[in-house]
Amino acid sequence: MNYLFxxxxxxxxxxxxxRVCQKNDFxxxxxxxLDVCSAIPLIETFSRWKFDNSRLKELPLDPEKxxxxxxxxxxxxxxxxxxxxxRSPTLLAVSDDALxxxxxxxxxxxxxxxxxxxxxxxxxxxxSLTYAHRYGGHQFGSWADQLGDGRANLxxxxxxxxxxxxEYQLKGSGRTPYSRDGDGRAVLRSSIREFLCSEAMHxxxxxxxxxxxxxxxxxxxxxxxxxxxHPQREKVAIVLRLAESWxxxxxxxxxxxxxxxxxxxxxxxxxxxxxxxxxxxxxxxxYIIFFNEVVNNTAYTIAKWTSIGFAHGVCNTDNFSLxxxxxxxxxxxxxxxxxxxxxxxxxxxxxxxxFNKQAFVGSFNLLKLREAxxxxxxxxxxxxxxxxxxxxxxxxxxxxxxxxxxxLALIKCEKEDEHIINQLLKMMEGKSAxxxxxxxxxxxxxxxxxxQIDIPKTAWALKHLSSHNQFxxxxxxxxxxxxxxxxxxxxxxxxxxxxxxxxxxxxxxSQEAIEMADRGDFSRVRLxxxxxxxxxxxxxPAEDLKYANRPPKWAKGLKVSCSS
Length: 564
Ligand SMILES: *[C@@H]1O[C@H](CO)[C@@H](O)[C@H](O)[C@H]1NC(C)=O
Ligand SMILES: *[C@@H]1O[C@H](CO)[C@@H](O)[C@H](O)[C@H]1NC(C)=O
Ligand SMILES: *[C@@H]1O[C@H](CO)[C@@H](O)[C@H](O)[C@H]1NC(C)=O
Fold this sequence. Notes:
The protein has 20 helices and 14 strands.
């Protein structure tokens, strides 16, 4: 009621352009205050913050309440297990944007002592849960049986002021029945990477989970970071991460494999009802439509990854969201030099999850989803499900072409344009051109249709590429297509500058921030988050740190480990 009234009020404000920002009359009514610029009512005191009453409680809960590792939990979607707090937690960084727009709190609440206690599982707002999710998955091509949240706790759900439903999860919050041999902790290194990258992906417009805050402890755990027999002590951290849903393909697979068909039906219905509002639960084809939408969303997200040079690194079915979100940031990476066969996982010697295999792996994962849905789909409908799956690759290709056409301002996006894209990528591969900066500098240089383009020395990536013997011919073709499209060159540049980032989370950039944070200096993590909020905008601090320069030599030898 209050909320509706507030929305109404905002509309009135727009209509009559009344500045309500400074007014506090409504504070007493709603226990809220109006944020000066965002016009969102933000919560001022964290002790007032609470979850909504969660519908997740309707899903089957494991009756075993003792928390010990069990390889064969049955007939449950969640186990209830307490969070194991870390000692002497320190707030390392927060995402102001996630705080405002998802939690709807004023960023200053992070100074309330119960905010850190919240991230540490000690302060439990009203309607809190602590659930570990049971799921399974295909890992590296084979069925891995029960996996589950081995170091994560679902805390609850809450609808943000824009009407989106968010599930809150702690990662690194201790052992659960699904920890297998793990200790339930996440180290500082991998937590910072997840924190920064999920926010960066959000600002790059990629469907993704978010991160609101990260805390770090002086507690350490042993990790053999490079699996080379040299384990070391590393600090542990907890990340508060957020997603509209954390359910994965593996969430359904385990139920289908275990013949828990009622649970399977209940979970899919729950997901459809909460996240696929356009599907009618009474529709007899609802599971087929659901599959179609998951296929579509997955194709789109992977095409987005490819368009910004992102490789996920572990595309197992348990790391693939049913909403097509990017989740579980592990050994991910962004391409420096364009090499389509590159993989961020240094132990992946088969290159199974290489950059250019992600679409293939996506279709494999969707095939596994289809298998999980089979018990609910009548026999005569199977051909249409097969057709949907066969449609994945064409759909992916369509998204891919559309996104790459935008990167080059080829707004008609016809066959000829695809040819231009492919030729550019081939040249880039041949020259190992920097992926991000080649596209960016194509958007930044002065374009002229009738003259040879003049590449300044500062456009280092493009300068390098221009030594390719087909570069001049390629630019002529590209210019010709731009001219035919009827765009003027300024418009073309604007389109390109909106989709070709100047700053991405390169490994060397996170590495420096991780080393500083490990020494207790969190300023770099915070600065990077700030920079990546506007990846398309030239920023002095980023230039000073050379984030748009050629990666330093030491970046080349940098290995990203999977141990986390
Ligand atoms: C497919 O996904 C795209 C991108 O998320 C979305 O815009 C579109 O509405 C989806 N189409 C269907 C039929 O779900
Ligand atoms: C993917 O899921 C597996 C199984 O739960 C987990 O061990 C792994 O850490 C996840 N990958 C990432 C990158 O988080
Ligand atoms: C990296 O690849 C290897 C080999 O395929 C695999 O065993 C390992 O689990 C992968 N790492 C992660 C984090 O998935």
